[in-house]
Amino acid sequence: MSGTVNGLHHVTMIASGAVANNAFYTEALGLRRVKTTVNFDAPDVYHLYFGDELGRAGTVMTSFPFKGAARGRRGAGEAAETSFAVPAGSLSAWEERLSPLGPVRRETRFGQERLALEGPDGEGIALVGVEGDARTPWTGVVGEEMGVRGFQGVTLWLRDAGPTVELLTLMGYDEEGREGAFIRMRARNGNGADVVDLREDRSLPFAQQSAGSVHHIAFSVPDRAAQAEVRRALSEVGFQPTPSIDRDYFYAIYFRSPGGVLFEVATEEPGFTRDEAAEALGTALKLPKQHAHLRDALKRQLEPLDGVQS
């Protein structure tokens, strides 16, 4: 299976409201909303996607905004922080931009400067100064000189990191180093969103998932053939991944990792231009076909978002 996982595809979190969530990721971080749709299992809840110009794999933060959801509790068994790559040297500008929204702190991990903060629901966010990231940022709000290139990675909080190290190794990651409580794993065949940091602490309480929690992290594969290979390899060592599920913009399999984090493996095909032109991404409410008959009701229930045609 080596080489079939190309780093992260997307990260999906739970929010307490669509308006504040949308504003933070589009206005504060300067990402593009590339798709406005609804949760397959709860169609009265948005599923919002934020990323680069086309929502390329490794750039997309997605959210389920359950209106009024209580704040979750961070702890073991979750992805406690999502890190975004920004140009090295831009952190001072980011600090100035984001400080009015709440506390930010400078820190260093594995020799990289980073700015740690929280999103509107308390979700852990970091901006990491990365040298030489050639990915092109979306520049609708933030200029290229400091624009977000996509994810750098995620940090999982675990009581015992060992089994997750073994799983990530199977999926095409190598251990790159250890620093204090952190183990850094990096995809061998990475797409820029290459890093999974594991924080091991046996005293951590278990996470309680709600607003501000990451629901799942998705890893990227090129196509369904590669996904099938990953699924086979996971099944051979005792995991129980789901069948491949059509999520309109990618195909997905899901399984629970040893530390409790929900993992997904998603294809890069067919992508977000499947039902919208590139220049119009995110501007219309798109519904899965099984929920198309609910459009009128959903228009009354969903919070209005700027620039969305219903």
UniProtKB/TrEMBL annotation:
Annotated InterPro entries: Extradiol_RC_dioxygenase, Glyas_Bleomycin-R_OHBP_Dase, Glyas_Fos-R_dOase_dom, VOC_core
Domain of life, per lineage: Bacteria
Domain VOC as annotated: residue spans: 150-268
Record field: transmembrane: none
Name of one Pfam family that matches: Glyoxalase
PANTHER family: RING-CLEAVING DIOXYGENASE MHQE-RELATED
Protein name per Swiss-Prot or TrEMBL: Glyoxalase family protein
Source organism: uncultured Rubellimicrobium sp
Higher taxonomy: Bacteria, Pseudomonadati, Pseudomonadota, Alphaproteobacteria, Rhodobacterales
